[in-house]
Amino acid sequence: MQTLAKLNTKILNVNVRPEMQLLLCCASTKIDAAKTEQIKSLVQRTDLDWQEITSSAWKHGLIPLLYTNINAIASDTVPQDVLEQLRKLFYTNAQRSLQLTGELVQLLRLLQENGILAVPYKGPVLANLLYGNIALRQFCDLDILVQPQDVLKFKDLLISQGYRPKIELTKTEEAAYLKDKSKHTYNFIHDSKRIMLEVHWRITPRYTSSIEVKYIWKHLLSSSFGGMEIYSFSPENWLLLLSTHASRHRWEKLSWLADIAELIGRNPEINWQMLIQQASEFDCRRMVFIGLFLTYNIIGITLPNEVLQAIEADPEVVSLSSSICQQLLTRNTDSHRFMQNTFYQIRVREGLQNKLLYFELFLRWLMRDKNVLLDE
């Protein structure tokens, strides 16, 4: 992992406030001597707005890393009421993560017992894979990928376990929903456990990327989780999936960049040529490049020179990354965020057909098609 010798006061021409500098310094499980000194220097400032730091950390999914690193490095310097607030948030998140992990293991066993092939996606599995500790990553729901023909079988199992569909659909509406190219999850809620489960049959909506789910099913790896054998993804495919998911939401959380940094740091053997080739085939190369470029500049990672050169050769990547950086690192109150997201989604696609696919969705939204964003 790359570390920075001095504080990041400006990133992609965006001025970075001390509060955000501290958050970025703590957004990693690997804190070397240089970052340790940066953290110590920052927490000694008397003008720090700790309320802003805490609220930003929660918003960006970085409470676990912020608390863990500050507690280890500067617990005597941070105001004790602030440290206590961070500690409570950390343990509240850890308790919730344990509950969700236990539920996920039960559901995966249920699926295995009923002969349904499933892959847990994001959530506890990603926390364990990238951080080695489910308490070090914030997540609020569960995601499980199944094959399209198994969605309704899974639905019946979930109902038997006390879940209900988030949105009630008739049989006709349900059939149309599962065929709609703007859909990729069927969401269920367990009211007493306060758990939402997203059942995926696609990785993303078709308007977000062209990743073929058949490709994902053909390239699964075996892994161990919660005392059972599960299916997971290769590091290269994790990068594809993390990038397309974050791109769909225009990279609104810093924790998604922290995830990419941890993934790259733990997998030095990543086949970059294969990754770029596959991303190009699925028209998500620009999404992957933006994720790598943002992580390189904001979190600090080492990238092969040829990869960095390929990224910087695309002016759209640099332009879009700068705009996203402005949104992430400043107190942005732009009221035109919807239009920004729309233009981003069109610009990030490289194929004309896929640009038109997103534009079609945008027109449906303008016509107030209430079905367009039911799975949001």
TrEMBL record:
Domain of life: Bacteria
InterPro entries the UniProt entry points to: NTP_transf_5 (IPR039498)
Stated name of the protein: Nucleotidyltransferase family protein
Pfam family, one: NTP_transf_5
Protein source organism: Fischerella muscicola CCMEE 5323
